[in-house]
C-alpha cells in the first residue's frame, strides 16, 4: 500500500474544503413562503394518502398489502412530527387551506398537533405489536385527532 505524501494530503484537504464551500448552503437558508406552503401541502397530502391506505388495509379492501401497514403507519408518524414548524409566520397567504387560527391560536394549534403526533406514535407502536384490536383503536383515535385539528384549523372541504 502506498502512502500519500503530506503535500498530497494537504492538496486533497484543500480541494475537499473548497468543494464543500462551493455547495449551496441549505441549513439556515430562508425558503420562499410559496415553497414552504407547497412543501406543507405535500406533507399533509402524504399523511392523508397514508391514512387512506391504512383504512383500506384495515377494512380488508386490499388484503394483499397487509404487510405494508407498518410502512404507512411510520409514514404518518414521520409526517406528523412537529406540524407547527410547517406553518411559520409569513406562510399564511395564497393557495392554502390553513385558517388564520393556525397563526392566531398557536398554543391551541400546537396542542392539537402534539396530540396528533402522539396518536400517530401510538398507532405505529400498535402496528409493530400486531394486535388487530389495538391497531383499529389507535387508528380511530388518530383519525379523530386529525379531524379535530382540521375542524379548528383548516378550511372546510368542498
Helix and strand topology:
Elements lengths: L5 H17 L10 H26 L10 H11 L21 H4 L1 H24 L2 H22 L5
Helix pairs in contact: 2-3, 3-5, 5-6
Protein name: Cytochrome C
Keywords: Electron transport, Heme, Iron, Metal-binding, Signal, Transport
GO molecular function: electron transfer activity; heme binding; iron ion binding
Compact overview of the structure:
By secondary structure, this protein is an all-alpha fold.
Structural descriptors:
158 residues, mainly alpha, Four Helix Bundle (Hemerythrin (Met), subunit A), 6 helices, globular
CATH superfamily: Cytochrome c/b562
Instruction: Give the SSE string.
Output: HHHHHH
Q: Radius of gyration, Cα only, in angstroms?
A: 22 Å
| Largest sheet entry | none
Q: Helicity, in percent?
A: 55-70%
Structural notes for this entry:
The structure is a single chain. The chain is mainly alpha-helical and 158 residues long. It has a single domain (33-153), classed as Four Helix Bundle (Hemerythrin (Met), subunit A) (Up-down Bundle), CATH 1.20.120. The chain has six helices and no strands. The longest helix is centred in the first third of the chain and has 26 residues, at 33-58.
Amino acid at each position: 500500500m502506498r502512502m500519500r505524501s503530506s503535500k498530497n494530503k494537504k492538496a486533497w484537504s484543500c480541494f475537499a474544503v473548497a468543494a464543500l464551500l462551493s455547495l449551496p448552503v441549505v441549513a439556515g437558508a430562508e425558503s420562499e413562503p410559496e415553497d414552504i406552503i407547497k412543501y406543507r401541502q405535500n406533507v399533509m397530502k402524504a399523511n392523508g394518502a397514508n391514512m387512506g391506505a391504512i383504512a383500506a388495509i384495515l377494512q380488508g379492501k386490499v388484503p394483499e398489502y397487509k404487510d405494508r401497514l407498518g410502512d404507512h403507519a411510520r409514514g404518518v408518524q414521520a409526517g406528523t412530527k412537529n406540524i407547527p414548524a410547517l406553518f411559520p409566520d409569513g406562510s399564511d397567504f395564497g393557495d392554502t387551506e390553513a385558517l388564520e387560527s393556525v397563526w392566531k391560536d398557536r398554543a391551541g394549534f400546537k396542542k392539537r398537533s402534539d396530540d396528533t403526533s402522539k396518536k400517530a406514535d401510538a398507532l405505529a407502536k400498535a402496528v409493530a405489536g400486531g394486535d388487530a384490536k389495538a391497531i383499529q383503536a389507535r387508528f380511530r383515535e388518530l383519525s379523530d385527532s386529525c379531524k379535530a385539528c382540521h375542524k379548528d384549523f383548516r378550511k372546510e372541504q368542498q
